[in-house]
Amino acid sequence: MMGDAGPEGQFVAGGTDLYPNMKRRQQTPRTVISVMRLPELNQISGDGKTGTRIGASVTLTDICEHSQLKREYPAVVATAKLISTPLLRNMGTIGGNLLLDTRCNYYDQNYEWRKGINFCLKKDGDVCWVAPGSSKCWAVQSSDLAPLLVALGARIRLASTLGERVVDAGGFYNDDGIDYLHKRPDELLVDIQLPPANGWRASYRKLRRRGAFDFPVLGVAAWAKFDAMGTVAEAKLVLGGIAPSPIEVEEAAQTLIGRRLDEEQIQAAAEKTYIKARPLDNTDFVMNWRKQMTREYTLRALRDLQV
Amino acid sequence: MSESEKNKAHIKFFLNGEETEVAFAPHKTLLEVLREDLGLTGTKHGCELGECGTCTVLVDGRSILSCLMLGLDAEEREVTTIEGMAEAGELHPLQDAFADLGAAQCGYCSPGFLLAAKELLEKHPKPDRELIKEALSGNLCRCTGYIKIYEAVEVAAARLRGEEMELPRESLYGCE
Amino acid sequence: MTKNGNNGKPLKVVGKPFRKVDARAKCTGQTRFADDIVLPRMLYCKMLRSHEPHALIKKIDAKKALALPGVVAIITGSDLPIPYGILPVSQDEHALCIEKVRFVGDPVAAVAALDEDIAFEAMNLIEVEYEPLNTISSIDEAVMIDEPRIHNYGDSGNIHKKISLEFGDVEAGFAEADLVREDTFFYEGNTHLPLEQHAAVAHFDPDGKLTLWSSTQTPHYVHRALARVLELPASHIRVIATPNGGGFGGKSDPFNHEVVVSKLAMLTGRPVKVTLTREEVFYCHRGRHPVLMQVKTGVKKDGAITAMHFKSFLDGGAYGSYGVASTFYTGALQTVTYEVPRYKFQGVRCFTNKPPCGPKRGHGTPQPRYGLEVQLDKIAEQLGLDPIEIRRNHLVKPFSVTANYLRIGSMGLGACLDKIAVGAGWRNKFSGWDPDKRKLPYGKGIGVACSSYICGAGLPIYWNNMPQSGVQLRLDRQGGVCVMCGSTDIGQGSDSILAYIVAEVLGIDPFDIRVVTADTDLTPVDLGSYSSRVTLMSGNAAIQAAERARELLAIAVAERLGVPIENISLAERRVFDVENPEAGVTFAEAVVLAESKFGTIGTVGSYSPPPSPGKYKGSGVGPSPAYSYSAAIAEVDVDPATGIVVVERIWIAHDVGQSINPVLVMGQVEGSVYMGLGEILMEEMAYRANRNVVHKFPSMLEYKSPTTLEMCDVKTYLIEDADPNGPFGAKEVGQGPLLPVPPAVANAVYNAVGVRIDEVPITPEKVLKALREKAKGRSGRYGPESVPEVSWPEPLKVLTPAEGGDGRELPHVAVHS
């Protein structure tokens, strides 16, 4: 079907991202192809020993209520629960959340409003109003699950008429608000593969105005694997909501590796994420405060990993 | 048959327990199909972008945003709207409690709240206040401050469990 | 006026938590809102809105749009050349802009088409050529920049209105004070955000009569505006206010879309509907004015106020709306809570290129109340007084007249303060002003504030000598009672209030009564659901109509029973002899007797507020038949690491005079707390001054309305200090309880972490910034530093009642050469 629809076709699952964009004429596909009734996209399989596959059109509610995920991947469940509202989670899918269009206060507006500012780089215009000198679009990666899944090393399976490929979540995103995914339009996201739950812990802290509805204006995902002595063997810190893609802060993770996860290390890592974070003024809240909150939310995310 | 009739989508689904057939322009949302093509105006709209919860209906027992679901996707599914909540003129205990406690002020968000609360009580017959807040966090109300809504859900939950429950005195008259 | 419509009998209906008369309809989705109306052959209307904030319209070309199949009519400004506006002094709106547009969202053309999609497509085919003008985006700019003028009327340049009033010798008052404080505050604008978007359906029948169904709070004013703009006799226009899906003041103006669908219905001969999108609702706005304030107050050591000078600067947006009244309201009610023996008020309203501001719940008074109550907290600290005591000890006296000639009736604020102080455990939580002796841990705080609000404006919006509310009652021989009133139910339950009151007087069940409201053909005029006037005014009118009906029934039944009329009582659907209750007839039989004796039974009642003692120019805003009182204590948790404020609980007591229905009163109190909470924590109308003054985010997602997860616990106390002017003693509750919430939260934030946020909303950025300043040894205050220079007119001087004034201004002193 996608082949028939050509470049003006688009896959849709829960529709909670695409349909508002279509109503505002930000996205204008002529054909939308629902994947919600493809059985293989609707399943959760595997376990914490060998790894778990979550079909792309599994709803966020199903993830929140899945007893095996709750037990073995509590961070994934907790993060899914932070997305939007119960109503939206009943419709929205994990695949949709990972493919979420980048967001910006200059872009997520209806046609007339955007016309009022002479449009923007991401759609119909040629200036990025967030950074008018920039040739790049700075719309923000606003998925909650993306930074978490990057942090815990999930893999993403894509399929098209040309075959299948599996990519690291970390390599899936591109730091450009327009071309924000390493994915061809004809490729279908099939499932998400979580690594075995073998001795790592992960957490996600989300900053937003309200406890429901709101997209993250900062997300901090933390992941660490501990050795038998309780020392951090591997770690990742990934920031969401502040740039066109999830931002992995390797220098922050480095400060943790080989040491116990005590307050001193946590503070040092938070300093690194703070330095790295460069939010721009295109979401709720002032950007300076969001930057400052990077430190605080990193602290909180890492403290969540302490036993 | 006119051109527009020919282009219409045609689906069969179960609406408030009744098998229903309807034809509509294929791009229409379930919200529009319910209100415009089936005349069920009890389902309201506040933003049509999934940002307020006013258009909540139940699809296969789950509360969803009817403004973000295509009518086409309702094919063969069970849809419950506010019109299907009372049975044979008997109000659902949630509707009764909402009426008793003034939990519906302007009444515009009430259908959405009632249906979201119905799903909650079917999953959790004895929700505490925190769970009620969480379950209703996708429905905005500008009139009530939500308090009377929580109280009504608690009263209805007790009555659905078969317990006798008087309306709390503090809810009706304030604190002593 | 009968003080108690029940002849001293115990109340059977009033004061009881009955269901609303429309409760079942609302809980079953059967209530018909404006957008639920569908008529045969109905067309759909879309309005093309300006994307320029300030521009001359050079040309409008609708040819392509008209050619689109399915388009039936297109109109532009020249089709509706007559201006209108809610206030007689600001008739500055056109249904569709004529020569210029004044904000992004101002409508320039309207399409009627077979369906909404075609209308939308046609709208985008209309070509408009604009010549942009410089914009005015703030109070500062409006005060400094005279040209280009947004309007060619007003006090000067881009200043719409200046007010300067002085009651008594304020300088002498400051000279007597032990402490004089001057503080500056800013209260950001915010909007009503009713869940229901405005909608209207117009139908022009073949006999030349127009019917408009609209989600309006003021069908009478819409009626007047339509007659004026459409040049139809008012008798040929019928306006029906559909149940409002939330109003909060946002549906109180006559709106361009109402005029436009009426005109399109007249032109096409077909019904026409318009339903605004959420963005368009933001452009209708008429919400809370952004207000910059400077408050100078003198006090004695015990906290007694000696004088106050209040200056307010309002950002009015692009049109007048209720703005002149709003401006007066920012200076009117400072005097009705605590004794203010001398008082000066100066206010200025500016035009800017933004959606127009107007009345939102509390109309013009939450902003000054914030300044006053936060300043009082600072004064209490400076004097070392308890914040409850400083308020409790200087309350205005009941049944007194204030310095600005507002007549106070019952005054239950002391009782309100007592209730919440005990309820909140104030003494166990507030420990004086020494941060080293706190009782609550750092980060947790408690704060108090009070307020008062009018129960209906003393004067109507346009000058006339007629009643402000009328009720007509019809009794039929089967025992049916129909009450008809122009009042509009916007969710507060005003339809039910009519039924309860009539049922109480006639001794029947409220659910026996049919209520017909808000229909200009069928119901006598009530001015509308604004200024918290409906329960008091329509309630009094209903009592009068019901008492007149009761009289007719009593005469007829007394004659039948052969007992004196005074012996007749009405209760339990019976009319009987109180001395021999067995002797009597059913209510329906009583109506038959009365109809046999008098003919068809119909009675009327009406209500006009008592005249105000103030006679000076500008005394029209502030007087009210009664004043409600509220006091609130907020308990907050402030995270010093982020600045995030969580309001955990609010204790609020409200003096409602007498609850007509306590559960509905509770709902109004809780809803007011909610709206106040949204205003203090997160709601704001924000614009991008550098990007064509566009609204920053006209959406439900980005305009932050608190969800269940932000709403605090509320402990409500109802105080019933009956007012002789209220029906059964009742006063308002719809607006007043919002007022103390923002300042109580601000004072609690200070108590929690020691920073003063003199700007609403209190967002985490501001708190954190103030905390960092404080950590550096600076003041730990966030807020505006100054107010713009304005050349004020010479104040109009009025002697206070205490100085022997008569309510009139002093004559201007002649200048001798």
What is the CA-CA span between the terminal residues of chain A?
A: 50 Å
The helix tally of chain B amounts to: 7
SSE class of chain A: alpha+beta
Major beta sheet of chain B, specifics? 5 strands, mixed
Summarize the structure in words.
With 307 residues, chain A is an alpha+beta fold. Chain A has helices at 2-5, 18-23, 60-64, 67-72, 74-81, 86-89, 94-98, 111-116, 145-151, 250-256, 263-276, 287-305; strands at 9-12, 31-34, 44-47, 51-55, 155-160, 163-168, 188-194, 200-207, 218-226, 232-240, 247-248. In chain A, the strands form 3 sheets. A 5-stranded antiparallel sheet of chain A has the order 3-4-7-5-6. A 4-stranded antiparallel sheet of chain A has the order 8-9-10-11, with helices on both faces. A two-stranded parallel sheet of chain A has the order 1-2. In chain A, strand 10 and strand 11 form a beta hairpin. Chain B has 176 residues and is an alpha+beta fold. Chain B has helices at 3-6, 30-37, 93-101, 110-123, 129-135, 147-160, 169-173; strands at 9-15, 18-24, 56-59, 62-65, 78-80. The longest helix of chain B has 14 residues, at 110-123. With 817 residues, chain C is α/β, with parallel strands linked by helices. In chain C, the strands form 8 sheets. Chain C has a 7-stranded mixed sheet. In chain C, helix 15 packs across helix 16. Chain C starts with 22 loop residues before the first helix and ends in a 19-residue tail after the last strand. The chains are: A alpha+beta (307), B alpha+beta (176), C alpha/beta (817). Chains in contact: A-B, A-C, B-C. At the B-C interface, helix 3, helix 4, helix 5, helix 6 and helix 7 of B face helix 1, helix 17 and strand 28 of C.
Summarize the model shown:
The complex is a heterotrimer of chains A (307), B (176) and C (817). Chain B is α+β, with helices and mostly antiparallel strands and 176 residues long. Chain B has helices at residues 3-6, 30-37, 93-101, 110-123, 129-135, 147-160, 169-173, and strands at residues 9-15, 18-24, 56-59, 62-65, 78-80.
Task: Draw up the topology in text.
The complex is a heterotrimer of chains A (307), B (176) and C (817).
Chain A lengths: L1 H4 L3 E4 L5 H6 L7 E4 L9 E4 L3 E5 L4 H5 L2 H6 L1 H8 L4 H4 L4 H5 L12 H6 L28 H7 L3 E6 L2 E6 L19 E7 L5 E8 L10 E9 L5 E9 L6 E2 L1 H7 L6 H14 L10 H19 L2
Parallel strand pairs in A: 1-2
Antiparallel strand pairs in A: 3-4, 4-7, 5-6, 5-7, 8-9, 9-10, 10-11
Chain B lengths: L2 H4 L2 E7 L2 E7 L5 H8 L18 E4 L2 E4 L12 E3 L12 H9 L8 H14 L5 H7 L11 H14 L8 H5 L3
Helix pairs in contact in B: 3-6
Chain C lengths: L22 H5 L15 E7 L5 E7 L1 H5 L3 E6 L23 E2 L5 E7 L2 H8 L3 E6 L6 H6 L14 E9 L2 H7 L2 E9 L11 E6 L5 E5 L4 H12 L6 E5 L14 H13 L3 E4 L2 H7 L6 E9 L5 E11 L7 H10 L10 E8 L15 H18 L3 H6 L20 H12 L1 H4 L14 E11 L14 E7 L5 E5 L8 H13 L6 E5 L16 H28 L6 E4 L2 E4 L2 E7 H12 L2 E7 L19 E12 L6 E11 L6 H20 L5 E2 L5 E2 L17 E7 L21 H13 L2 E2 L1 E2 L3 H12 L5 E2 L13 E3 L19
Helix pairs in contact in C: 6-7, 10-18, 14-15, 15-16, 17-18
